Amino acid sequence: MIYRTQMEAARMGIITAQIKIVAQKEQLDPEKLCQLVAAGQVVIPANCNHQNLNPEGVGLGLRTKINVNLGISRDCPDFESEFAKAQKAVNLKVEAIMDLSSFGKTQEFRQKLIALSPAMIGTVPIYDAIGYYDRELTSITAADFLKIVEVHAQDGVDFMTIHAGLTRETITHFKANPRVTNIVSRGGSLLYAWMELTGNENPFFEYFDQVLAICQKYDVTLSLGDACRPGSIADATDSTQIQELIILGELTKRAWESHVQVMIEGPGHMNLNEIAANIQLEKKLCHGAPFYVLGPLVTDVAPGYDHITSAIGGAVAAMSGADFLCYVTPAEHLRLPDLDDMIEGIIASKIAAHAGDLAKGIPRAKDWDFAMSKARAALDWEQMFELALDPVKPRRYRASSCPENADSCTMCGKLCAVRNMNLVMNGKGDQL
Predict the structure, then answer these.
(1) Is 276 exposed, middle or buried (0-12, 13-18, 19+ CB in 10 A)?
(2) What is the pLDDT of residues 364-402, one digit of tens each?
(3) Which of 161, 236, 298, 368 could bond to 230 as cystine, CB 3.0-4.6 Å?
(4) 180-211 tens-digit pLDDT
């Protein structure tokens, strides 16, 4: 039987190679996973042109996945440094990389990244439009925007952020309900400017059926972007954000009618006590589609440490049912992240994802922690390093301060509780 997308195959009862791989990774029955994909509660972003993809699932009952952002820009056009970051992200086994390139040889970078990466690749085509056409924003037409979507799809992009919920109606609502930080989404602000300057409707909304046709042709997963996500605690969960979310829910149903996979993007900045409610709203208004969140950042006052504010919010979001976390680095709001910033962001986001998985009871999540606890109880340092989420940093810390007793550390030395309990319980108390 012929199918065009993972969702269409699942609805036909076909267990694809990608479904089999994801089911094995997640320790799920392939038939059960097939049902979740058919219902839109799990997506498997897998462009038919991404040849070396190691597929991952995002959604209900699966491990929380993380995404890394990178890409070349006008101020930082260093192709090789961004590609080195991509290689490091792959080595750190991130599940997704979003190429946010907006200047220079964007297609060359994207094609090289897709050829390299077993991780799923995402893009935001509107970022690329101005650089691709090298024209003023107002001279770009709706057809031009749609052409960029197809170019990215042909190149092998697995999922795309499309800001289709920022409509003329949404803009009217936004103007009537002033915000502290207005629209902080780069793609959303570009669309807002284009719509205001041309007087046209959002092309991704007006020609949504054409977007769906492209996605269907290449099996691209739609990541419906939150152009109106809050950029500050003050703007969180406001009426503009919810107005857009309602539209995204309606577009989700239209996408599913075309067998196109969908996930929904979410905030942004918000108080801790609002996160769970936002997850519930998305799941309700968007019919259980997987939720992909940036952070959330739980305070606005920690520039330089926003990987921490994001990890706090991300853990709560994952625990509450978010499916996919977009990492945030210490450079957020300040500059393009360098390699070290990226590593810090990846580790922080992985901690948040795993903490959420423990709370959700994801299969095998607690096994990892149990193994680490056993290694600590045995003072098996090598095993602890092997099990560590990041083996490099703990090895470096241990090597930098050598204890008198090899089985302890310089924090406690011979007073180490674990060491002394092991000696006493093994009848070797005289060795304390």
Answers:
(1) middle
(2) 999 999 999 999 999 999 999 999 999 999 999 999 998
(3) 236
(4) 999 999 999 999 999 999 999 999 999 999 99
Q: How far is CA 111 from the centre of its chain?
A: 20
Give 7-13 contacts, CB < 8 A, sequence gap 24+.
7/37, 7/38, 7/40, 7/43, 7/256, 7/259, 7/260, 7/261, 8/259, 10/34, 10/35, 10/37, 10/38, 11/38, 11/259
The upper half-sphere exposure of residue 88, i.e. CA atoms within 13 Å in the direction of its Cβ, equals 20
Contacts for 27 with CB less than 8 Å, ≥ 6 apart? 363, 364
Supply the pLDDT for residue 220: 98
Residue carrying the six token digits 């340092």: 381
Evaluate whether 66 touches 292 at the Cβ level (below 8 Å). no
CB 336 within 8 A of CB 76: yes
Task: State phi, psi for 75 to the nearest 5 degrees.
Answer: -75, -25
What one-letter code names the amino acid at 222?
Answer: L
Other beta carbons less than 10 A from residue 355's beta carbon: 19
- Measured CA angle at 366 (ends 91, 262), to 5 deg: 60
Contact at 8 Å (CB) between 131 and 71? no
Separation between Cα atoms, residue 129 and residue 103, nearest integer Å = 9
Question: For 100-141, how does the pLDDT look when each residue is reduced to its tens digit (9 = 90+)?
Answer: 998 888 999 999 999 999 999 999 999 998 778 878 899 999
CA-closest candidate to residue 329, choices 342, 338, 339: 342
Q: Which helix (H) or strand (E) holds 293?
A: strand 291-294
Strand 65-70, strand 96-99: pairing: parallel
Round to whole Å and give the CA distance between 41 and 283: 10
How is the chain split into domains, by residue range?
Answer: 41-360, 401-432
Superfamily of domain covering 41-360:
Radical SAM ThiC family, central domain (3.20.20.540)
Which helix (H) or strand (E) segment holds residue 419: the answer is helix 417-425
Q: Which residues of the chain have pLDDT under 50?
A: none
- pTM score of the predicted model: 0.95
User: Distance between CA atoms of 292 and 399, rounded to whole angstroms?
Assistant: 38
Residue 429: per-residue pLDDT: 78
Distance in angstroms (rounded) separating the CA atoms of residues 217 and 399: 53
Distance, in Å, from the CA atom of 39 to the CA atom of 402, rounded to the nearest integer, reads: 55
Is the Cβ–Cβ distance between 120 and 53 less than 8 Å? yes
**How far apart are the two ends of the chain, measured CA to CA in Å?**
71
